[in-house]
Amino acid sequence: MNQYARLLIEAGPLAAFFIANSQAGIMIGTAVFMVATSISVLISWRFERKVPVMPVVGAGFVLLFGGLTLWLQDDLFIKIKPTLVNLLFASVLFAAHLTRRNVLKHVLGSVLNLSDAGWRTLAIRWAWFFLLLAALNEVVWRTMTTDAWVNFKVFGIMPLTLLFSAFQAPLILRHQVPEEQAEKTSAS
């Protein structure tokens, strides 16, 4: 699957959430988000024939916290979901770094060929970025209206993530390993 299709599949549930929230409120928006996220994961699986780890974890959180939101009729749960997901991702990356494992290489190794130093640096940068997103989410949902939070979730988090990813290009280029060398390293 190409990167544009992947972006559409990952951004689709957010767009559906935004539209449903603007038309019918946070409860309907949450229900639509849950369904759209489930469909997104199924489409990813259908085309890639493997379970995409991060989207599945994200979908699990959407279903859990979306379900709590709907069951208890309390939007707090859907609002804290991004905080908890980002804290989980940051914790996994920091813990992997401390134990000298590279989870990011495992997740993205089929897309990128980087030196071990490159993978370590990239993982630490992403861990700190996930912490930043968690903190931003906390500030926004605690200080703004629900509609403003939804706007931030759709029009803030995704662009920030894309911008952060783009800023990683120099690091990736600097630590890129030719494919032949990467194959030799993984075979040993």
TrEMBL record:
Membrane topology: Multi-pass membrane protein
Subcellular compartments: Cell inner membrane
Keywords: Cell inner membrane, Cell membrane, Membrane, Transmembrane, Transmembrane helix
The organism's place on the tree of life at top rank: Bacteria
InterPro entries registered for this protein in UniProt: YciB
HAMAP family recorded: YciB (MF_00189)
Record protein name field: Inner membrane-spanning protein YciB
Naturally occurring in which organism (per UniProt): Azospirillum isscasi
